[in-house]
Amino acid sequence: MADENTAPAGAGDGATNGQGPAVALQTVYIKDLSFEAPKGPLMPSGTQQDPKISLNLSTTSTNIAQDAHEVILSVTLEAKNGDVAVYLAEVKQAGLFLVRGFGTDETRRILGSFAPNLLFPYIRQTVSDIVMKGGFPPFLLPHVNFDALFERSLQEQAARQQGQAAPPQAN
After folding, report:
1. Rounded CA gap, 92 and 169, in Å?
2. What is the 3-state secondary structure (H, E, C) of the chain?
3. pTM for the full model?
4. Vertex 124: Cα angle to 120 and 127 (nearest 5)
5. CA 155, 55, 133 angle in degrees (round to 5)?
């Protein structure tokens, strides 16, 4: 059989010379990490051993250079027995992303949905490890649908803008 030229799709549009749209994770790192267990893993006898867990998750992104963005996925995990703090874990997992050749809306979607999806397994492992090293059973963060969260944030932002743009109604 003769040699066939099987160039990848889009090869003639600059994608192979580094000029086309690109998303690349450059590095993943822990930006901030804190763990507090005021009484250690031992609870006084007679204390109920059923802590209530509070979980807060957020993302931020910062443009740090042309086409380079730092995305930070933050988790605050607090376990309490009544009013007694069992432990508090705060983790900021960051990633440096190269995002080139996309429009503003596409870039926002990449940084608000795609990037946190890539960072999530790292922060999930970090939280589990730090809780376990604090003497407690490992805590696995529940799976998060960052696509749905991003869509909801867009809808909330649009609703806020409509609320600000709406003229006041006369009584």
Report:
1. 44
2. CCCCCCCCCCHHHCHHHCCCCEEEEEEEEEEEEEEECCCCCCCCCCCCCCCEEEEEEEEEEEEEECCEEEEEEEEEEEEEECCEEEEEEEEEEEEEEEEECCCHHHHHHHHHHHHHHHHHHHHHHHHHHHHHHCCCCCCCCCCCCHHHHHHHHHHHHHHHHHHHHCCCCCC
3. 0.79
4. 135
5. 145
* pLDDT tens-digit map of 3-59: 444 333 434 444 445 678 999 999 999 999 999 999 888 766 555 667 899 999 999
Longest dimension (CA), the chain: 82
Query: Distance between CA 35 and CA 103 in Å, rounded?
Result: 39
Distance between the two ends of the chain, CA-based, in angstroms?
82
Residue 109 token pair: 């979607």
Between CA 29 and CA 21 the distance in angstroms is 25
Chain mean position to CA 44: 36
Q: Judge residue 65's burial from the number of C-beta atoms within 10 Å of its C-beta, 0-12 exposed, 13-18 middle, 19 or more buried.
A: exposed
